[in-house]
Amino acid sequence: MTVIIGDPGEDEPTASATTATTTTTTTTTQMKSPSIMETTPALPANVFLVFFSLQNDLLRSAVFGDSLSYVDIILMDGVRINDAKNCLDLFPQKSMFGAGSKCCTHGDTITITLGKEASILPGQRIEVNSDFLTTQKSEALQNCYDSCPLQPHKELVQFSIAKPSNPVKVDSELSEFLRNAVTRTITVPRDLITKNFTIYCEVCNFAAVCAKSNPLPVTRTARTAQLSVVVSGIPATPVPSVTLKLRAVPRFTHCNTIQHMPFDELDKSDLLTVFSVLEEQRFQVGMEPLIVEVDGFDRSISNDQPIVIDASASHDPNSKSGIVQHNWTCINVKLSNGFGCLISNVWTINWNVSVLRIPAFALNPALYLFVDNITADPLNAYARVYVKVLSSHVPSITLVELSQQRPNIDQYVRVIALVQSKSWPLYFSWHMRSNERKLLHQFSPAAGENLHRIHKISAYSYVDLPGTFPDATGELVEPSTNSDERVVIAFTIPPANTQMFPNWTGLAPGAIYCLCFEANNSAGQSFSEIAFRTNEPPTIGVLNLTPSSDIVALETPVTLSLGDGWTDLPEDLPFSYRFGVRHLGIGNTSIDRWEGVSTQNSLTKYFASAWPEPHVICDVRTGYQGLVQVCDRHGACSRTHTASFFVQHPINASAASNKLLSLAEHDILSGDVFGALSKLNAIRLEHCDSNIGESYANRVVTAILRVFKEYSDVNDFWEQISWALLMSDRLSESVTQQLYEVLEQARLKFGFSAVRSRRKRQLAISTSELKLISEDQASLLMYPFDTLLAANKSIVAMYLQNVIDVMSSFCRQVGTSRIMKAAGAGLTFVQAQGVTPGNANFLNSTFLFAGETRKMVSMTAEFKHAFSNYQCGTEQQRSVCMQICLGTAQITSEAFSRNAYLRSFIFSSTYNMIDFNRSASNFYQVSFLDPISGQFVTLNDGAAFRISIPLKSFRPSHYYATSSPMCNTADRAMFVSQISAASGVSAKRFVNVMCINDGNPIVSATLRAPFRPDQCENSYAVQAIKRAVDGSEGGLPVFTSSYAISVNASVVHRVMNGDGNARRMSLLIDRSFKDVIGNDSAASATRWLQSIAATTRVSIYRFKNPHIFVGIIFNFTITVPFEQELNPISAEEIALIIIEDTQYGELVLEGRQGEPLPVEVATLADVTELIPTSESNTLVLVLAIVVSTFFIGSSTVVAFLVILKIRTDRLLSMRERLVEQARYILQSD
Predict the structure, then answer these.
(1) Contacts of 679 (CB under 8 A, 6+ apart)
(2) What angle is formed at CA 1045 by the lines to CA 1041 and CA 1047, rounded to 5 degrees?
(3) Where is the composition biased (Low complexity) (predicted)?
(4) Residue 592 pLDDT more than 60?
């Protein structure tokens, strides 16, 4: 980097013209693109000469300013400019003044401020268009205007510019110092600044291609104190759709020191002086091209069906209303003149609407082009749609516009096809072609280029969607409701996800795709296409950290700022920025904390201390990394981080905290909420996560509410509230009431339902269409409610409604390839996913639940029958859907224990059969929603689902005896088969089946404990059996003319000595020792112990000293429980379990080749007691499991209660086995 200073002297050479001779001095600030080599005539050292000639009676003189960055042109008396808005139009060669040059008129003087890449060179002549001047006097104008388009001119005059009266001069020592500077930043010593000068920077790349910056005037002042302000946050290319967040940073310079507000260290002499400063920033807002959205670009349709082309989503991003005008034209492509569709006048067609409707039979079979001229003064764009009209009764297809018109590669792309057919069945498939980066240079939205036509003129590669996604192809049967209704077929293209789709690498950035939907019936094939271009994220550049060392906690302001390298396509600008900090912890852990999105390209913040091991701060922090996320205006983002840095303890932590607290108070007063939150968080972390006091929490929350009411930035509001409540949930009741009201307003901005009041059983009020929110937004919405719920605040109604609204929004975005999840502050979880009941393997599928890692939900055959195709959509437009949304929510038991209002809401007098203290699980909500409208769907026609609920604070027994009133002794096998099929419990687990005819016919059976990884525990199995029987109207059919109408379960107790001693046990295997064991007895013994531990679900550490003897006799020891073992069971009971496993053929031991070995049935004679015992106790548990579906839209909350009462006569000592069972199930799922 070379820094050059202009230093013209008094004795510089002059240049002459035919009519005048003047000496001029000025800087030449010529800045070219780095990709173009500069060529500049050589000049004498430190001399910048510009020559003009003057031939007129309109201009008095022209002179350069002393700073060499502007030119003053003085007009003759009475001469004025006709139009001040075209000030620069005086000069046909105005580009010589540089990009962004400005013209200012004041009285009889015209001032031209040179801009970037000014190219005034010695000897050049500058012309003036005299048509823009008049000799009539007018009022003095004081306004400056940017460069305007050139206007036609007739008469030109020429003029020259004189040198400045007091030109800038620079000492040779300063000039030499700057020339030797080769770093990104420089600091000029004060003793070198002896006079005014202008500085600029020249930057060269590795190919010696250079560019120069704008000149920066440096002016000395005799004042010892000065107040200044810097306004930032204005991008180079602002557009209407991007929110500008400006920041004014005042600073007070006193005796070479700089202070930022609040100015609490001023001298007494400064306090007697009134300082004021005015900073003005002028910028020009660009115009974005019109957004053109149409429901499919190419399609085919039968002539007996109407043609509907929907361009209603097209809009003008430059206005709040977004209103555009439409003017459709129809062209018959095959006609020689290419014009006219020959539609009879009997058809009444409105060609100036957003949704064009052509009646059936209005067009004969042919290929037509429909062009929509979309205008919003002064912009226009075109949408072109090719429609092939056929004579056969092929399916009619309408594609709903994409969920994202410029999707990012990390987003889901969802498209919906609406299909009608006269004949069934109908076969459909999705196909896609791609053209990566081949025609991007031809795509120009501003020029009205149509993306959907690009694919017609370029070679595409095909993407195998049917081979990657199961739902990309399928068969439709005739709808059971109305065969003329449209069938909804939704398809979602996910981002790269190797776990769900190993062969899918995702969409490529900056590529063009054409998505085609094809449908076939007996009459033929039809199709509809839609094209889109993926958005490419910004190129990752440099993130600067200043300073990077010697940082003191709470005292040193640290600035994160963007450096070089951040680039993107011009149409994707401007950028928005989000800065953050990564808190590094012990064990390579980290937590990211982000601040709000803005147009600020830098952030200054304070940090709490952090130091690497072994001096870890608060046993948590080992360092930090600065973060930044740079996004273009379409939402594609890139991230990077700084190197790790450390922060030292302040010498006086109390003084540092108080000073930073005063800065936070100033931020609160000035409306800088994020600044205040950041500083308060640094203080909180410095004191090891101690919460801020209630008074400060009230002040911060009140400031957030005030800013939101004034500016209504809903995204910032949720982020700020979540951050504030993270630091403290102690709010006064009055502030909580204000927060409650504003939370309601903020929810309404998302289109969520309003709640009338805070009374119990509030009614929901329908509002505008629900906004589609992302997972991050949903989590932000839920976090404040979880926090206030934990603080025992009365927010139950809005809290529950919020859960439902989030679920409804998710359901309108998900599909079979997309699951959406959100979580609050650890108390609430919401999830939605699309399921297709018509799939062949649907009944064998289980689905995930909100907040759980295991699959818990499955559906019945009746559910599959009811929802393989069902009526869906809005009241205005009913359709037939093949998919349904499974929405689940979980509220932890901790939420009930911490919030009395929630307990009262759920466990009111209506549900006095149980109370919260008797519940043994979290609370789960299962709902099914319409994927089009997001409304809840009522289950009917026997449709049902199954759910396996994890139990808490409950240890079920291993065995249950079940009995059902029915019976015929000849049908025991059929009974087991039917019960197994209805409940999903393996038939092998039912043993000792007996029929008892004692008054009422009863079938009795013993339910074995699980002995395979895919088998659920007996607690789940009993619930499944009860649901299968109790959920069947009229009873569950088990065989001819017999129905199970009730189920009773009781615990089967083993007969034990209760000695608590260890056991030695032997198992006999009828095989050749040489063939099975060979010379590898140790490995076989270890493998068999692992198999026994897995089958019994007992810790492997309870089995010791395995030996295999010729016979084959397998001998091992069962130890007593060890101290760290959770909920252990006795060795005696483990031995009994193994005996039972051998009796029922559940124990599987394998040979060296993996072949199962025949283990003979063991008896008590094979068990040897080793050590004495202890007693067991009595336990009575009552389990209340609540599977709740909340309908806040009604005045009640419907809760489905499954009550299971288990009585035991003694405390069973088998807890370790249950823990191992639960862990095994979770890991296997």
Answers:
(1) 605, 606, 660, 661, 663, 664, 667
(2) 130
(3) 14-29
(4) yes
Taking the CA atoms of 586, 588, 593 and 598 in sequence, report the sign of the dihedral they define: positive
Q: How far apart are CA 678 and CA 698, in angstroms?
A: 16
**432 within 8 A of 513, measured Cβ to Cβ:** yes
Residue 1184, CB-side half-sphere exposure with 13 Å CA sphere: 16
DSSP classification of residue 919: B
Sign of the Cα torsion 724, 729, 730, 734 reads: positive
Spatial separation of the C-alpha atoms in residues 49 and 69, rounded to whole Å = 13
Gap between the Cα atoms of 1094 and 602, Å rounded: 57
**Cis amide prior to 193 (ω within 30 degrees):** no
By DSSP bridging, strand 59-64 and strand 225-232 are unpaired
Burial class (CB in 10 A: 0-12, 13-18, 19+), 123: exposed
Measured distance CA(73)–CA(127) in Å, rounded:
13
CA-based max dimension of the chain: 132
Q: How many CB atoms lie within 10 A of CB 413?
A: 21
Peptide bond into 378 cis (omega under 30): yes
Using CA atoms, how far apart are residues 667 and 356, in angstroms rounded to an integer? Answer: 54
Flag whether pLDDT at 283 surpasses 90: no
Element (H, E) at 705: helix 694-711
What backbone torsions phi and psi does residue 553 show, to the nearest 5 degrees?
A: -60, 135
Q: What is the DSSP string of 55-119?
A: --SSEEEEEE-TTSSEEEEEEPTT-EES-GGGGGGG-TTGGGG-BT-EEEEETTEEEEE--BT--
- Token pair listed for 530: 């839609």
Q: Is the CB of residue 612 less than 8 Å from the CB of residue 661?
A: no
Q: Cα separation of 736 and 727, whole Å?
A: 15
491's enclosing H/E stretch is strand 486-493
pLDDT tens by residue, 875-926? 777 888 989 999 999 999 899 988 989 988 887 654 444 566 667 788 999 9
SS3 assignment, position 22: strand
Confidence at residue 605, expressed as pLDDT on a 0 to 100 scale: 92
Q: How many CB atoms are closer than 10 A to CB 56?
A: 15
Rounded Cα distance, 1069 and 1159, in Å? 5
The whole-model pTM stands at 0.61
Overall size of the chain counted in residues: 1229
Rounded Cα–Cα distance for residues 773 and 811 (Å): 11
Q: What tens digit of pLDDT does each residue of 1195-1210 get? A: 222 222 222 222 233 2
Residues 345 and 349: their CA atoms lie apart, in Å, by: 9
Cβ atoms of 884 and 873 closer than 8 Å? no
Instruction: Identify residue 323 by its one-letter amino acid code.
Output: I
First to last CA, the chain: 60
Q: Which of 707, 701, 663 is nearest to 683 (CA)?
A: 663
- What integer is the mean pLDDT of 537-559? 92
Cβ contact 51:122 at 8 Å:
yes
Triad 602, 663, 249: Cα angle to 5°: 40
For 278, the 3-state DSSP assignment is coil
Cis peptide before 44 (omega within 30 of 0): no
Residue with tokens 């920033």: 281
| Residue 889 CB coordination number (10 Å) | 26
Q: Cβ of 800: how many Cβ atoms within 10 Å?
A: 26
Cross-strand pairs, 905: none
Contacts of 488 (CB under 8 A, 6+ apart): 416, 417, 418, 872, 873, 879, 880, 881, 882, 883, 931, 932
User: How far apart (Å, rounded) are the C-alpha atoms in residues 868 and 1048?
Assistant: 35
Q: What is the DSSP string of 1041-1074?
A: TEEE---EEEEPPP--------EEEEEEB-S-HH
Which is nearest to 812 in space by CA: 492, 1188, 494? 492
Q: 231: alpha, beta or left, given left = phi > 0 and alpha = psi -120 to 50?
A: beta
